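In this supplementary section we document a worked example of the pipeline. Step one takes a protein sequence of length 235 as its only input; no multiple sequence alignment statistics are reported here. Step two produces a three-dimensional model, which step three serialises into structure tokens for compact storage. The input and output of this example are shown verbatim.
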Amino acid sequence: MDQSDLLGFLVITLNCNVTMVGKIWLIFMVLLRMVVLILAGSPVYQDEQERFVCNTLQPGCANVCYDIFAPVSHLRFWLIQSVSVLLPSAIFGVYVLHKGAELAARRSRGLEDASEDHDAPGLTPGARRCLTVPDFSSGYVVHLCLRTLTEAAFGALHYLLFGFLVPKRFSCTHPPCTSVVDCYVSRPTEKSILMLFVWAMCALSFLLTVADLVCNVCWKTQGRPERLFHHRIVE
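The serialised model returned by step three reads:
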């Protein structure tokens, strides 16, 4: 099997083991979630700490208040969340490509050995042989479960850390502040809109993952049609 046939076999193997819902989820994750966070989130949060103004001159008070207000940067948390949710899909894709390449190599060697046997019945020069595309539906279900748990865990952590909206004013009484200190967040409305967008993306991702899981289970229950990849033997 030459390189073009091997690449075609790997692409077909990966394509046949991912449902249409899974492909839609991948496009949604890459184009909507990651691109919007990088292009829209970076300008909004590039000056978040510098413009976090508190009505006090007490040394260190503003830094402590900001640390309480945002233990983790919103943008960094969202990027880590997006990468973590993509990680199970990346691992599954690498696993499928690795196993598919191994299977293609073994079957290609078998076909070459058969082509050298001129006494083999029905084997003629230039004959076509079929490679069955392997089924990785069990691994796909496992990766969907991991993706669902990851999305749910980050959603719960996001709610505990940040809630749903960015407040315009944040009151702080933690030492070294000597009294109640009011701090004001820069661009609170724009950040709230971006946070609501992230919540919507998380919810949509979770729903698509659950739908993907249901589709894959139904597809497996009904029985997948046999998938063949034709490879021409060249003597």
